[in-house]
Amino acid sequence: MGKVVSDLRAALPTASISVYDSNSTDDTAVVARAAGAIVRHESRSGKGNVVRRAFADIDADVYLLIDGDDRYDASRAADLVRLLLRGPYDQVVGIRKHSNVAAYRRGHTFGNRVLTGAAGPLFGREITDMLSGYRAFSRRYVKSFPALAREFEIEGPYPRISQATMAGCLAITW
């Protein structure tokens, strides 16, 4: 977590970086705070609850969501933000490109391909990595996001709203 916060700070030096701790049993909050993040707490476990809380709590022009496990290249954060602002996008997805096959759990690549392949025709556009945990969002997207997901099923709803909004993609080494 500390490395992700430090890497984001280097990539986006003027950004306000918030980390949400949702009942972690490790030192997530301590490490994030020591790295310079604003630490916020969500009493309900799960990424869905954290995203819903963050979208409600934070008021910004651009929102960047990145998993804290240091699998995504945080140095590319500025690229995601630039593409979002250049537009005409409401969401830019960091599309994972394998640099290390071991980074994916067994069966994860196949499962993501099946889900992503099924979602594209449903939403009328090509979605190449529906389950990516690295995204930039516009204020309009965030403030209109229904956030119905609860615990850990948050990635599924992102493309749903994309029917009415524009989404861009950027390849990210993973």
UniProtKB/TrEMBL annotation:
PANTHER family registered for this protein in UniProt: RFBJ PROTEIN (PTHR48090:SF7), UNDECAPRENYL-PHOSPHATE 4-DEOXY-4-FORMAMIDO-L-ARABINOSE TRANSFERASE-RELATED (PTHR48090)
Protein name, UniProt field: Glycosyltransferase 2-like domain-containing protein
InterPro entries per record: Glyco_trans_2-like (IPR001173), Glycosyltransferase_2 (IPR050256), Nucleotide-diphossugar_trans (IPR029044)
Family: Belongs to the glycosyltransferase 2 family.
SUPFAM superfamilies, sorted: Nucleotide-diphospho-sugar transferases
Domain Glycosyltransferase 2-like: 15-143
Pfam families listed in its UniProt record: Glycos_transf_2
